[in-house]
């Protein structure tokens, strides 16, 4: 008998999900749930690192679960749960926080980027340590794989280091988790090929956008600056719209690229075509979303069940941890 491997991946409930979340992570979760034991974490405590107002977190968490279900996560296969409702996260976090130095956390490139992007002057202790809480999130389920976008790879590396440190100091309890990337692990936003699509950058297409929203947003997309007139030859390799064609318009992407290069296809037409393709991809998504918007009480059952299953796995791990440390 081959044992199924375990996956843990989560997101912060900080707003509506976008195409980057979908092609970088969510889509992989859906595909992998056939083969792996998937656990999906609503990282509600992590929201506090950048926003102390907790009053909207419950509503935002429910909203995010609707997005996950709409994308095709099956709650029978993949428990979905709030981090705050599985208390073992905080217990493991405390233990793991002794196994990493502050210097290592200060070197974390993602924290440096956030300090710059969000103009943070004084970082809280909890914010600096959020990769340790993330390590606890992952290791608590003894996950083998973590399907995430490229920006999360440094965090998974920290989780691996902490797992190694624990295993060496006490006993081997944790597998060293590995990141699992998709082909589009860093989807660009509408404002340029070098800019990652991201909630905080306001350059997103949301999974819940209507076809009209999508058309409108694509009109603003930044294309090759050297292609000014319709008939100017363009360079698809520097154009974010072409990345979208590669992902959402597989069959026609090559023809689109050739038309752009030859100067026979203008940006207006190219954008219209991809907007249609993206809208079509998101149609089933919008339909499922509309169902759950009208039946949001079903989400409570999904969470109650997911949280119970998560607690069982988490407590099993903590029993190993306490035994390994001779503390239980
Ligand atoms: P924020 O701006 O608040 O950091 P975000 O838009 O970057 O939000 P996250 O909640 O940080 O989204 O990310 C959730 C998951 O989606 C992570 O696995 C992350 O790596 C992935 N992801 C986010 N943006 C992209 C993107 N543009 N391309 C591919 N994957 C992405
Ligand atoms: Mg992010």
Question: Can you walk through the features of this model?
Answer:
The protein folds into two domains: 6-186 and 296-324, HUPs (Rossmann fold); 210-281, Tyrosyl-Transfer RNA Synthetase, CATH 1.10.240.10. The chain has 328 residues and is mainly alpha-helical. α4 (88-96) packs across α15. The two termini are 32 Å apart. Helix content is 53%, strand content 9%. The longest helix is centred in the last third of the chain and has 28 residues, at 297-324. The structure holds adenosine-5'-triphosphate and magnesium ion (MG).
Quaternary status: single chain
Can you list the strand order of the major beta sheet?
1-2-3
Distance between the termini: 32 Å
Q: Could you give me the name of the CATH homologous superfamily of the largest domain?
A: HUPs
- Biggest beta sheet summary: 3 strands, parallel
Q: In the CATH hierarchy, what is the architecture of the largest domain at level 2?
A: 3-Layer(aba) Sandwich
Can you count the helices?
15
**Shape, principal axes of CA atoms:** globular
Q: What's the structural domain tally?
A: 2
Give average pLDDT, whole number: 95
Question: Could you give the count of β-strands?
Answer: 7
Query: Which fold does the CATH topology of the largest domain refer to?
Result: Rossmann fold
Beta-strand portion reads 5-15%
User: Helical residue percent?
Assistant: 40-55%
Q: What small molecules does the structure contain?
A: adenosine-5'-triphosphate, magnesium ion
Low-confidence stretches: none
**What structural category arises from helix and sheet content?**
mainly alpha
The string of secondary-structure elements, in order, is EHEHHEHHHHHEHEEEHHHHHH
Rg calculated over all Cα atoms: 21 Å
């Amino acid at each position: 008998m081959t044992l199924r491997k375990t996956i843990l991946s989560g997101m912060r409930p900080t707003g509506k999900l976008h195409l980057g979340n979908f092609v970088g992570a969510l889509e992989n979760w859906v595909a992998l749930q056939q083969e792996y034991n998937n656990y999906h974490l609503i990282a509600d405590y992590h929201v506090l690192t950048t926003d102390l107002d907790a009053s909207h977190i419950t509503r935002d968490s429910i909203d995010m679960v609707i997005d996950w279900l709409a994308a095709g996560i099956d709650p029978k296969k993949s428990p979905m749960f709030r981090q705050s409702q599985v208390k073992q996260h905080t217990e493991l976090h405390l233990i793991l926080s002794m196994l990493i130095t502050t210097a290592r956390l200060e070197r974390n490139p993602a924290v440096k980027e956030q300090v710059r992007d969000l103009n943070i002057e004084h970082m809280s202790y909890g914010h600096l340590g959020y990769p340790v809480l993330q390590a606890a999130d992952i290791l608590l389920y003894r996950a083998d794989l973590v399907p995430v976008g490229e920006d999360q790879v440094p965090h998974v590396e920290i989780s691996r280091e902490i797992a190694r440190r624990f295993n060496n100091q006490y006993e081997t309890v944790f597998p060293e988790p590995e990141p699992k990337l998709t082909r589009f692990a860093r989807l660009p936003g509408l404002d340029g090929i070098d800019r990652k699509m991201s909630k905080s950058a306001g350059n997103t297409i949301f999974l819940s956008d209507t076809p009209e929203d999508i058309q409108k947003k694509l009109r603003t997309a930044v294309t090759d600056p050297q292609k000014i007139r319709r008939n100017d030859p363009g360079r698809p390799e520097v154009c974010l719209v072409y990345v979208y064609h590669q992902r959402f318009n597989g069959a026609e992407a090559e023809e689109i690229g050739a038309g752009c290069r030859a100067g026979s296809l203008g940006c207006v037409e190219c954008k219209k075509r991809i907007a249609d393709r993206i809208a079509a991809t998101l149609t089933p998504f919008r339909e499922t979303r509309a169902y759950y918007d009208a039946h949001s009480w079903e989400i409570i059952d999904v969470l109650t069940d997911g949280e119970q299953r998560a607690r069982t796995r988490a407590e099993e791990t903590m029993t190993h941890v306490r035994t390994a440390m001779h503390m239980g």
